[in-house]
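U., I forgot to send this yesterday:
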Amino acid sequence: MSSRTLLRWILLVQALAALGIGAAGMRWLGLTGWQAAALGLGSVALVRLVINVNNFLLSARAASPTPPAFQIAPGAALRMAWEEFSTSMLMTSWHMPRAQARTRLHPGAAAPPVLLVHGYGCNSGYWAYLAPLLDAARISHATLDLEPLTGDIDGYAARIEEAAGQLCAQAGAAQLIVVAHSMGGLAARAWMRTHGAGRVARLITLGTPHHGTCLAAFGLGINAGQMRRMGVAGPDCAWLTALAGGEAPEIRARIVSIYSHHDNIIAPQTSSELPGARNLALGGVGHVALGRNPRVLAMVMGEIEALRSDRAAPAATPHRRGIT
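Result:
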């Protein structure tokens, strides 16, 4: 079953639950139609909120120490929790149930094309907020859906290789940038281990559990097991250890890991720190919100722009010397 189908079934169950609660309110409490609708929808939203808050509580048990520079006040914590909840609702109730993998080409773009790789339990709809920024910057990009939903992370390599090859061919580019969220970052690393990193100009990971997460113990599937971590100071699982063992220093140098010290799914949060990569930390952002938060999106676009500028510099230098 795809994540799109699963999310549609979950939405149906939630709608039936809301109707049932509303009908009970009309029958037993004498509510009007609007009151019953508010009760039903509010009850479903409340359950979703409790689940979201519980993730923060679970991650706090296995949290790594938050550096003083990234600590936030209670008001900021509430805003962070609201952003994470509202983003989760939008992603799972609107964007992802409707999503279809797509490719957008911008001929003549100076930047390498961007391949967007989603994380565990998600699909191409996760990139609903980054894709418009890439379009505005006239950067060719493509999304893909990793299936099966609970499959082996190594098994996703073939799908990523296919998507990367098609995007490079369609954009007329030798290399691309991969932006990957959560498990998607591990899938991208596994793909490079299998197929090589020749196509990869940069891999930008968002909230990727490079050393596993304790919350993976609550997940289902082979992929959840491959991300599992036993305790804050516990060792990486065998799969993560093997993945790290197959990476040369020059591969790590192409990776940028962006993560939040308040991630509510990746715990300990410093699991996203990857030796040899460039690690960029921030605070006050939840896990799902990494794909929507303006600060994070600006960081991603900044990394893409920096690579475009670096590649343009050698071509510009001879021209400037000629004028001189």
